[in-house]
Amino acid sequence: MENTKKHFGIYGGQYVPEILMNAIDELEKAYAFYREDPEFIETFNQLLQDYAGRPSRLYFAKEMTRDLNGAKIYLKREDLNHTGAHKINNVLGQALLAQKMGKKRLIAETGAGQHGVATATVAALMKMPCEIYMGEEDMKRQALNVYRMRLLGAKVVPVISGTASLKDAVSAAMAEWAKHLEDTHYCLGSATGPHPFPTMVRDFQSDISKEMKEQILSKEGKLPDVVMACVGGGANAIGSFYHFIKDKAVRLIGCEGAGQGIDSLKSAATMNIGSPGIFHGMKSYFCQNDYGQIAPVYSISAGLDYPGIGPEHAYLHDIHRAQYVPVTDEEAVLAFEYLAKMEGIIPAIESAHAIAYAMKLAPKMRKDQIIIVTLSGRGDKDCAALARYRGEMLYE
Ligand SMILES: *Cc1c(COP(=O)(O)O)cnc(C)c1O
């Protein structure tokens, strides 16, 4: 792992209220120490392997490749991890670090409930009390995940401020952290927020690209032409990109939730409609109005429904190392249904955004070229909402 640094170009930093500065300092120092500690690394790797189920598979999507008649498509199967997404990688790392720091309790924010479920899961494993902050609107939409978190022993705290969704849950969790710095670790779910979170979460997710590289070299004897992933805050995408950043011939593409389109008011495609600003402790791109107020965002996918993006992505965008493309709800839904029928794999609706862009890009590429798409999670959680999108009522 490379040296810890606070900024990515002009982005990142630690824009937090004074009251949080001590906690951020303590976390930064602890992470700088433990990321180099052989025993910490060994325990983390063991958990990734035995508990999360790593390494995840790199699967050649033969039917999709044949059907699209262009580049070869491989899927990085993060959906096969325990709890069904990439989130567990980061939570295992942070919970382990929290224990090393002597913290007794975990708190986290959640949107759709995936990060909340992963945190509640690891808290149960490590015998740590756990509180999950969740927008009241999201609690109604994701009742099953609320039940799962409670079953795992976590307390789910409804957040009623603002739009009662993900960004408000992050704000509420930060406020709670400030009140209980002594015994509590805030387990942030994406590569966002103040330093060291964007670096730490990226490192904990970077096995995705490390494995991808080894796997594609052993299967194809060469690097891929394109690596792509969906982007909410950007954790699974930066984990997928990280070990390819120096390989300039590999195109890196992040797929944003464009909702009803980037020209509509209902979108969450931060890099396509946003501009630089400061929020939730970091300088990055945000969806905001002319006065710099954070704008309400929308995507069919609760995991992509966030008005910002991690600072390392902002930097990769500005230096033209990675490209960020908008994908609409409708395109994602078609990709969700396509992958189910074509490969027998039901992707998370978030991941379906990346599948949708691969469906556009592959036919324009040569047959000896390779695309790797990160399948960030599985789609069981989305079936009821997708049925409703198609006008069918489905009761869980
Ligand atoms: C949370 C989530 C995302 C979005 O988060 P990132 O930080 O951008 O990775 C994407 N896919 C799935 C399945 C998720 O659960």
Give a verbal description of the structure.
The chain is of the alpha/beta class and 396 residues long. The chain folds into two domains: 8-49 and 87-201, Rossmann fold (3-Layer(aba) Sandwich); 53-84 and 205-389, Rossmann fold. It is 43% helix and 19% strand. It has 16 helices and 14 strands. The strands form three sheets. A six-stranded mixed β-sheet has the order 3-4-14-9-10-13, with helices on both faces. Strands 1-2-12-11 form a four-stranded antiparallel β-sheet. The chain has a four-stranded parallel β-sheet with strand order 7-6-5-8, sandwiched between helices. A hairpin with a 2-residue loop joins strand 1 (7-8) and strand 2. Helix 4 packs across helix 9 (197-205), helix 9 packs across helix 11 (235-241) and helix 14 crosses helix 15 (349-361). The chain is globular, with a radius of gyration of 19 Å.
Quick description:
This protein is of the alpha/beta class.
Strand content: 15-25%
CATH top level of the largest domain is: Alpha Beta
Shape: globular
The strand order across the widest sheet is 3-4-14-9-10-13
Structural class by helix and strand composition: alpha/beta
Report the biggest beta sheet as strand number plus sense, adding barrel if it closes: 6 strands, mixed
Helix content: 40-55%
The CATH topology of the largest domain, please?
A: Rossmann fold
pLDDT averaged residue by residue: 96
- CATH architecture tag of the largest domain: 3-Layer(aba) Sandwich
So how many helices? 16
Number of strands: 14
Domains (count): 2
Distance between the termini: 44 Å
Low-pLDDT windows of residues: none
By oligomeric state, this entry counts as single chain
Q: Output the radius of gyration.
A: 19 Å
Small-molecule components bound? pyridoxal-5'-phosphate
Give helix and strand order, one letter per element, not per position.
EEHHEHEHEHEHHEHEHHEHEHEEHEHHEH
